[in-house]
Input
Amino acid sequence: MKDKLEAIKRSAAERVKETDSLTALEELRLSLLGKKGELTQILRGMGNLSPEERPAMGRLVNDTRAAVEEMLNNSKKHISDKEQNMRLAHEKLDVTMPGRTKPVGHLHPLSIVINELSELFIGMGYEVAEGPDVETDYYNFEALNIPANHPAKDEQDTFYVEGGLVLRTQTSSVQIRTMEKKKPPIKIIAPGTVFRSDQVDPTHSPVFHQLEGLVVDKGVTMAGLKGSLIMFVKKLFGNETKARFRPHHFPFTEPSAEMDISCFACGGKGCRVCKDSGWIEILGCGMVHPRVLEMGGIDPTIYSGFAFGMGLNRIAMQRYAITDMRLLFEGDTRFLQQF
Ligand code: DAH
Output
């Protein structure tokens, strides 16, 4: 029995040395010390020994077991250290290495202008309203007091869609949609895309952008309109900006006006930007026509309102000194990356 124990110990030492993974080591442990393991078998044989032999043999078995366990434990520690070192070497990170940058998109110059103008008007108490790009003839023309034979409805100007719909030619359509939904006081802006069948050239595009404004309440006046718009252009173009209003005609406002601002390039002296006039036309505006209020379900004997509409592309072009409107729509990233 003693020899057997010696043999087990020796072969265990050799097999432990040959083992180089934790799973193999666990298998080895089971084959030695497990329920059916070699040492366990010997322990079972103790029953056949005489009472005198048992204590000494018992001690020997225990010593052997302890020795084998120690070998196994040492090897386990050794192997797991080695495995960890390998893993660490494999996963080594060079934190000083420069990162990989992904190209990030950014806002289109038109979006920048829309956001900036919206922020300005929101600061003046306006809410942002929206309407569909594909409109009915009613919202785009009829409810805005534009009669059936009006030149704006001409096929030359308007894209007609099947089913009597049009691509909206102006954001003014949002005026009626808003009045139908909301009771006064109403104070909204509506930035959006509009469409007209214009020939493409440096200052014209069949797709462009407008920002509409509508204020309806008791006691809204032309003086209020002028005050609000002057405040707006001073905020947008600087405090020294001057404004003037010229009489004009729009079917949906009465009286109507166009607003010019003093040229921000030359301060009003006259230059190429303002074609030597010192002024730049910036928007159309007026007091909402009583018929339009009625169409929106609002009683014009109680309420009055003002409205305005401006082209955003021109503002973006002026702001960034862009000389060709087509650049705003062509999606050339070399151009767009500048903003
Ligand atoms: N809808 C007009 C256009 O497209 C712009 C406009 C003028 C809007 C006067 C208004 C306004 O609300 O009162 O030319």
